Amino acid sequence: MERLTADLCVIGAGSGGLSVAAGAAQMGARVILVEGGRMGGDCLNYGCVPSKALIAAARHAHAMTSGAPFGIAPVVPVVDHAATKDHVARVIAGIAPHDSVERFERLGVTVIREYGRFVSRDTLEAGDNAIRARRFVIATGSSPVIPPIPGLDKVSCLTNENIFDLRERPEHLIVIGGGPIGIELAQAHRRLGSRVTVLEGLRALAREDPELAAVALARTRAEGVEIIEGARVERVSNGDGGIRVHVGEGRVYEGSHLLVAVGRKANTDRLNLKAAAVQTDRGGIRVDARLKTSNRRIYAIGDVAGGLQFTHMANYHAGIVIRSALFGLPARVRTAHIPRVTYTDPELAQVGLTEDEARQRHGDRLEVVRFDYAENDRARAELATEGLIKVMVVKGRPVGASIVGAQAGELIQIWAMAIANGLKMGAIAAMVAPYPTLGEINKRVAGAYFSPRLFENPWLRRLVRMVQRF
Ligand code: NAD
Asked: What is the pTM of this model?
């Protein structure tokens, strides 16, 4: 056993762990990074990156079928499925050097390609190494949940971890779970020529504003994805050449492939957390607002810490841990300014409170302003008039913004900035947006907040009349 010591030992080389390791090493700390699986973690290898690459391919296929209103005759795209997966693999390979062992070693990080397990409160074993560190950061992420549905273990089932390896076109993809993973992959596969059925136990995209989610779901359905809500899967079996999925009341759906996307579980099994006195709860490792676990020397960040499961959240956590572990600064996690996007077409984006959440929190003090994509000239030119923004405002400040429509993931960013910095609606209204852009929607919705105050204010009208007399 080789004995190693470090200021910081990071367990997991996904988005969160890599950000901590890079930041800490560049600030002069001695850092050991432990990773038993692929460098880059879920986001690079099985999540954000491959899904967005596949969605981009699907968008091309869709464009070929939907140009008629522009005067472009639709054609049935010829999709080479293996080649679309090659595209996905190339995108991953292009980003991989940034997350590679070589890059981290160049930054001065010692990288150990083994899974680690705690043997005491301050020592982790990984392969033949016993690592003692002043601080540990657990950044081991999460994995797809395989629910205890009878029969699921007897059929071949896909998750986000292996669906991007498929070389052939799934003839009929059945998706269990209508969350963001299920719906994004359902639409992409439909556009690439598969028949797709989504079985959702409750409501699809249930975390989102229902009015806006309905727009994204309606379009996905209009493209031919069958989305069945209130369809809790009870049993799965092998059928003639396919997979049978049984939902309540004797309903059975049969498809060629099955994707399970019913949520994620924290990766804690290998860590032997008991030895380190790190406590867990249902969501994952229990942390305080500073991301410290029940063992004060050990932090947990990203998906394994059980909060919002986004790459950008893990990166944000990394910044907090660096401030705390390296500089002793009392940084605390906030979530009010963390955006999220579901990459359907149209996209669905949210930051801060939804209308329902804001109403519960702020009651009568809440004002909701809205603006339709149909009122935006660029959206008209692009024939992308389906969409809408809602901004939740309390005492002149936005507390939430929800957007469904083209580029919603880009448009949400100004609201993420406004909320992160406590800006008022006036800051957005004061901005001059270039014409004609979709981004003008943001300025116009801020205008919608001020116009009743200006145009329906009797005092102001009287003032204007008075000034005209001089
Ligand atoms: P999820 O928890 O968001 O959704 C899972 C859905 O599966 C739920 O709606 C649930 O009702 C349904 N379900 C559970 N058991 C079922 C059953 N037996 N039969 C039918 N339906 C069932 O999970 P997800 O979509 O796998 O996403 C996991 C996490 O990853 C989430 O936290 C999500 O925010 C994150 N993520 C986000 C994005 C994004 O923001 N673009 C993309 C991918 C993943």
From this structure: 0.96
